[in-house]
Amino acid sequence: MADELPLMASAVALIRRHDDVLMVESRYPGEEATFWALPGGMLERGEDVADALVREVGEETGLSLVGPYTVAAMIWLRTDDGAPDWLTFICEPAAWDGTIDVVDPDGVTLQAAFVANGDAEERLLALRWGLGAPIVERLRGAPLGSLWTYRWNGRGPWDGPGPAVLLSGPSSASR
């Protein structure tokens, strides 16, 4: 029997309103610094990507998503031996409804807002993990479904300062 591939999975939503992008400002417990990212989060055991996307976006923004959900890009984050790799699905919903109202049970999301596209690109490229390029490329018109593979020296995005190193992907946004 082959060794199991330990894997963590997350889903984030790329939601646009005209020339604006929906982002959330968050702060991890025990940290002072905040950061802006797309709404989304980890899949729970037994949960599929679409269900996790709907749940996470609802918690972090109060918005309801309408499927189908198109996979805009995927990020595979390779980690050290013995630690799970991370797979992130960047999804674009067919539509959304509601008004912004943060109800994050984890208390990590501070606010949600639509941000001008240029500001969103800057915030995404400034993420300490260095994983914003696939989203920025999509905002700039990259085709759907690209796969990006990164290497993280450590056990995952919360282990060390980053950034991740791009191993393969169609990026020109930030190298």
Cα distance spanning the termini: 39 Å
CATH class division:
Alpha Beta
Task: Specify the CATH architecture.
Answer: Alpha-Beta Complex
Give me the number of helical elements. Answer: 3
Category from helices, strands and their pairing: alpha+beta
Give a short account of the largest sheet. Answer: 6 strands, mixed
What does the average pLDDT come to?
A: 88
Total separate domains: 1
CATH topology: Nucleoside Triphosphate Pyrophosphohydrolase
- Percent of sequence in beta strands: 35-45%
CATH superfamily: Nucleoside Triphosphate Pyrophosphohydrolase
Task: Give the low-pLDDT segments.
Answer: none
Order of helix and strand elements from N to C terminus: EEEEEHEEEHHEE
Rounded radius of gyration (Å): 15 Å
- Give the overall silhouette: globular
**How many strand elements?**
10
Assign a percent range to the helix content. 10-25%
What is the spatial order of strands in the main beta sheet?
5-1-7-6-9-10
List keywords for this structure.
17% helix; 4-stranded antiparallel β-sheet; 175 residues; single chain; Nucleoside Triphosphate Pyrophosphohydrolase; 6-stranded mixed β-sheet; alpha+beta; globular
